[in-house]
Every structure is written in structure tokens, then in C-alpha cells.
Amino acid sequence: MLAQVLWNSIPTALILAVNASAFALIHRSSGVFHIAFASIWPATGTLFIQLSNSSLLWPLAIPAAILLSLALTVMCDRLVYAPLSMRSDSSLAAITASLGLHVVLLSSVLLVAGSETRMLSTVALSPAFQLSQVRILWSQLHSCFIVTAALLLTALILQMTSASMKLRALGDDPEGVELTGLNVRNTRSVAFLLAGFLTAAGAIAASTDAGMGPHQGMPVTLMAAVATILAGDRTLLLGASLAGFFIGTLQGIVAGYCPARWQEVIVFSTLTLAILIKGEGFLSAVKRLEER
Amino acid sequence: MTVEEPAIVCSELAKAFNGVRVLESVTLEIQAGEIIGIIGANGAGKTVLLDIVSGFLRPDRGEVRIRGKRVTNLPPESIADLSVGRLFQNLRIFEAMTVGENLLVGTCRLRCGWGSVARSFLGIAIPSGACAQSTELARAIRLFDRFDDAGRHFSVGQRRLLAIARMLARRPEILLLDEPLAGLDEQWACWVVQNLRSVVEAGGSAIFIDHDIDAVKAYCTRIYRLDEGRLESC
Amino acid sequence: MNYLLHILVLLAIDVPLVLSLTLMAGYGGSLSVAHAAYFGVGGYFLAILTTRFGWTVAAALLLVPLTGAVLGAATGAAAARLRGDYFVLYTLGAQVLFVGFARNMIPVTGGPFGITEIPRPLYMGQPLYSLSGFALFAIIVALVCIGIIVLATLGPSGLAARAARADPMAALALGIAARKIRFLVVALSCAVAASSGALYATYFGFVGPDSFGVGKSILLVAAALLGGAGNVQRGALSACFVVVLPELLRFLQLPSQLAAEFRSMLFGLFLLLVLLARPGNALSQSRRRP
Q1: pLDDT score recorded for residue C278
Q2: CA dist C89 → A19, A33, A96, A186, C79 (Å)
């Protein structure tokens, strides 16, 4: 039983790791808690499922989903977050604007696609195999592969280029970065593009594993946000991935042993407590009193 | 015959951040009527010392007493209620509030106990002398013409004067001053020193932190240097 | 005439509710995305006291603000610990938790079906079914709530609260009990929100988890920001706008589900426009120059 529960929690944990990474990339580089993720994620997943289930358009499913996620994520920055950051450095204004974006995008998704949960037509037929006492579905393996590949690719891009350094500098001092001659706008866009890519990976993986509904985004977003907070501000991707993996594992274990209707309550109680206990992150750098 | 307690006593204060010792066995005694100057390199720990005395930081070891009362574990607002005034290095005026409102916060002399807070929620009127005193202070620092302008619109020097006036409005007896004269011209520096001396001559005391050694020598009773966490008399 | 009285009752419910969030944001320095949860706690508490324990509405209405205040105290403690955007996240989590509890604690809350047959307040021993009578009752309750909010914003408490919001460290150094004030403001705000929830419950005779979700919280945030955090007069006006707009949308005769989504989208757009277009944005915190 425990082995099966642990295995079942791995795809969930990996999906949450990639979601948390997307969320953290944006937060670390721009200071924004990107709550609009809660509507972009299901929108991407829904488009992926719709196209995958189509006999003609299924080859376009993955590219279209990635494009939609990239477009929506960068649009959030170009139309809202970036103009807001020029008028005010209030992170409170940014998170509030993100809430507004979420409402607009979610309403659009509901108007266009309705409110029902969609599944891939192939999921029901997903074959399984037995590994000792653990039953493994191919859809779960696909899911794990997609998010792991996306995370590794993003990490590689950040390591092999100067993007990691630029994004961390941008997060610490945008004005200082501008003075060095770097194009702040384009640097921000890199973060949002990478985040959009990771968002798409997470949405596609989740859709492959368990389907997608428009209202699934908010709980996932909150967990990604908490993972970002727990990770602190020392790392760009690694901390959030690990924190997201941990939270996802916790969620999976709770799902295995508790009644379904209490899962969300138990997980969110834990997470809300985590924000309260360590609001600035377990791995944050110590700040001078005057900077707090 | 009653022996008056010293204004401030710091005993064996120690503070470290991430393994870096910022203060090490700092002992200091300030009597009423004294101005103590503290100099030192950037990052020597001067502001950390003021943060500990004013309650914003807890020392790892040691204690602070103000007029004989142990204050090491008291919150900053309780220490402020003991007639302690603090001027921050980065000023910290209320930028969204007007000059008048900034000064009114000082002249209202709000206290931090639950009773006072509850009464302030039930009361409607600002204390009667407070508005007049705010106006008087605004005139003194030559910001009366901009009484209704928000703090964010002022230069560094004007902000410093506003912060000092706001601190003095509470009529503190102990002043903790972090670079009070930075960015001020000679005329305003004299005004600040004049007010500082008025407080001290009335039985108050002050800790004066500055990088300008000449100023520290000119205005202080005793001078100390903070070096590698240790306080040494100059 | 009945329709206008109905609008009046909705105003009596929503104006104090929006003003309580305005108070929390402007004077407590804490923008909460869980205000629908405090609203819901008030509604559920009155519903449980009246339907399960036989209390009268008037007696329950006296206790409901205390419940809201206790919950607000817990929130206030969190507000004292957490910076603005972290506090928003915390309240978002609390909001989701509230709906989770409301949906799942079936013996207490009725689960997804909620609690029905909530009685009206009594007048001369008879339930106040007349719309004009209830409207008068609602206005009295609303005026008491608004009066409490206005009292908190005037005088020394308002000044201290604004200072504590502007710069907590500077406020502490001036003897302002910033944490206590923030705590009290948040508790007061939640008490008023809970009272509005109780009024909602006794008017509609029903409470359910879907009435107090994240969407409602975001709507309240939009309304509070439209007026400007801390601005009581404009907050009241924007609350009126929040009530009136859905009624105007009725004239478009959209199907109800479409209308609900359309309304949400409009409020989301308003929130964005307010934040992007307003000079002197109420949420702005100027960068501290050295």
C-alpha cells in the first residue's frame, strides 16, 4: 500500500515541482506572485486535451498548448506587471493585479470552454504494468517524463547562458541592472518565457495523468506559491523545485490515506501554517533590519 | 541622598549575524547630561548598537537598562514610551503622509499600552495642543508653506529636518541619533545641535553616531570607537 | 418599489462589507483576499445559532461580531508577522480553507447544500417579512457598522494606523503600538464583515459555500481598490457601484451562467484598470530614499 501511495504521489510531486519552478522564476526575477497562473494553467491543459482528442488536429496539441502558455504568460507581464512596476514598486499592487488577471482569464476560459473537467480519450485505455507491488500506468510515466525533461531543459538553458545571473540580478535590483546597460524588459521576458514553457509542461503532464478542469488552477497555484516562499530567495529554480516536490509528495500521501473530501483542507492547513511560520522562506538570505 | 540611575547602561552586549560577530562585550554607561559620540568604519556595528538599545534587535548576550529599568526584552514602542527618541540613518519619514501629519504623529505623543490604544479608537479629537505644536515645528524647520505636501516630495535635507522635528515633538529625554547632521548645511546643523543641547541641558542624554570626527569632537562629552565589535574609548 | 427596497438591502449589506476591507487595507495595511470568508463566517454563525439552537436573530447579531473579531484577531496576528503580498497569499489560503470546511463539515454547515430556512428578525413578536420593515432594520445595522468604521479612522487611532501602515519601524520608534493597532483594525474589520454576513443570511434565508468563495473575495478587493484603500467616502460609492452593476447587466438578458462569468470578467477588468490607471495608487508604497 505505502509503495503504491508513494509511486502515485511522484507524478503529482513532479508536476508541482515544475509549477513551483515556473512560479518561482517569475517571483525571483520580478517580485510578482503570479496568481494568474491559476487560469493560464487550466487554459493550457484544456486546449491540449481538446486538440489531442481531435482526430485531425492532435499533432498540434503540444505546440499549440506551449504557444498559448507562452503568449498568455508574456502578455501578463507586458500588459500588466511591467507597466505597474514602472508606476509603483509595490508588490502588493502586482499580486492584486494578478488576481484581476486571473478573474478575467478564468471567466474567458469558462465562457469559451465551459466548466466541466476534460480527460484525454486515451487515458482510460492507458495500459499498466506491475513492478513488484506497485501498479504503474503509462500515462503516469509520460507525465513524469514530460516534466522532468522540461525542468532539465530549463535548468540547462539557465546554466549554459548568462540568463540565471541576469534574472537574479534583476530580482534584486532592477534599477541597478538597467544602469549596467542590460535591457530590463527583454530580460524580464526571458523569465516569463521560461515560466510559460514550464507552465505548459506542467499543464500537459497533469492533463495526461488525470485530466483538467478550469477550477483546478487555484489550489495548484497556492501550492506553487507556498513552495516559492518556502524556497526563499537564494536559488532561482532548485529551491522551488525541491519545495514543490516535497509539497506534492505530501499531497499524494494525504490523498492515499485520507478521505478525498478532506485532502484539500489538510494540505492547505499545512501550507497556510507554513506561510505563517516562515513567511520569508526557509532558505532566505538574512536581511538588515532596515531592509525588512 | 538619592543617587540618580544612569540614563543608559549597556552591559556586555554581544550580537552576531550568520557567524559574523558585530558586537562583542560592549559595555557603556551614559549619565544624564552627557552626549556620547560613537565613530567607526562602515559596517562596524554602530547602528546595530542603537537598534539594540531602542529595542529593534535582541542581543545574543548582555543587557540594556534605561534609568535603572531593564529593557533588553521590551519592544521598541515600550522603550519609546520611556522618553527615548530615535533618529534613523535612513530617516524613515512617513512619505505618504503630509508634513503636518508627520509632525502630528509626534505631537500627539501616543502611548503604546492597550488602554491608550483602546482610548484612541474611542476618542475623536486630536489632543488640543498637538495641532498648534505641529504648526510651530513646521515653521521652525521652514516647511510651514508646504504643510500639506506629502513627505515623498522633499529633499534629503528637508526629510532629515522633518524626521528630527517629529522626534523632538515627543519631548524625549534620551536621544539615539544616527548621523543627524548628514546632508545639512551649517545653519541647520546648528539648529539641530541647539535642540540637542537643550534636551541634554534639561537633564537628558544622547548617543550621537556620525562619520564627521570634527562634529563628534565638537559636540560630544565622550567619544568611543567601535572596531571589530569592540567599543574603545578615544 | 419592492425592487428598490431590495437594492437598498443589498447596499446595507455590501457597503459596510466593502468599507471593512477598505479599513483593513488603508488603516491596517493588510489587503485580505479572505473577506468573503469572514462574511461567510458571520452568515453561517447566525444560521447555526438560529436554526440549530433557536436563538433569535437579534441575539445572534450581537454575538456574530464577536465571532468575526476573534477570527479577525487570528488574522491580525498573521498580519503582524507577514509582509503585504505574503499576507495576501496567506489569506488566499485561508479563503480556500474556509470553503473547504464549509463544503465538508456537513453536520455543522450542511455541506454543499448549505443551511436553509434561516429566520427573519422579530418585530413585535412577528418575523419581519415585510421588505420595507427589513430594509429599515438593515439600514440601522449598516449605519452602526459604518459608524464604527468612521470612528476608527478619525482622530488619534486613524493617524496612528496610517503611520503604522506607512512605516512600521518609524511608527514603533515614535511609541505607536503598530502591532496592536494593526491587530485591532483587522479584528474590527472582520467583525463588521461578519455582521454583514449575518444580515445577508437572515435576508436571503440561506447560506451555502458557493456564496462565499474566492470570486466574491476578489470582487470585494476590486470594490475596495476602486474607492482607494482607506478612503471611506469613495469606498461607500464603489460599494454602491458593485451592487448596481449586476442589476444593470440584467437588462442585457444574458443567460444566468453567462451573466455570472461576464460580471466576474468585468470586475476583473475594473480591478486591472484601477491599478494601472489611477495616479497616486492607494496601494503604492514609495521606495524609501536613503
Answers
A1: 67
A2: 16, 9, 10, 28, 11
With CA atoms as reference, the chain B residue closest to A290 would be B90
**Is beta strand A128-131 parallel, antiparallel or unpaired with respect to B174-178?**
unpaired
Among candidate residues C74, C94, C75, the one with its CA nearest the CA of residue C30 = C75
pLDDT for C86 equals 78
Predicted complex ipTM: 0.92
Rounded to an integer, what distance in angstroms lies between the CA atom of residue C161 and that of residue C165? 6
Pairs of CB atoms within 8 A across A/B: 9
Conformation bin of residue B12: beta by default, left when phi > 0, alpha when psi is -120 to 50: left
Q: For residue A289, which residues of chain B lie inside 8 Å, CB to CB?
A: 51, 56-57
Contacts of A112 in chain C (CB under 8 A): none
Residues of B in contact with C167 (CB under 8 A): 92-95
Q: Which residues of C touch A110 (CB under 8 A)?
A: 261
CB atoms within 10 A of CB B78: 18
Phi, psi angles (nearest 5°) of residue B66: -120, 115
Local confidence band at B145 (pLDDT 50, 70, 90 cut-offs): very high
Q: Read off the pTM.
A: 0.82
Judge: C265–A89 Cβ closer than 8 Å, yes or no: no
User: Is pLDDT of C82 > 80?
Assistant: no
Domains for chain A: give ranges and CATH numbers: 2-291 (1.10.3470)
For the stretch C260-280, pLDDT in tens is: 788 788 888 888 887 887 645
**Fold of the domain built from segment(s) B8-83+172-233:** Rossmann fold (3.40.50)
Give A24 to chain B, closest Cα distance, Å.
25
Interchain proximity C159–B92, CB inside 8 Å: no
Closest Cα in chain C to A262: C104
Instruction: Answer yes or no: is pLDDT of C242 > 70.
Output: yes
Identity of the residue numbered A256: G
Angle at alpha carbon of residue A276, lines to C96 and A18, rounded to 5° = 65
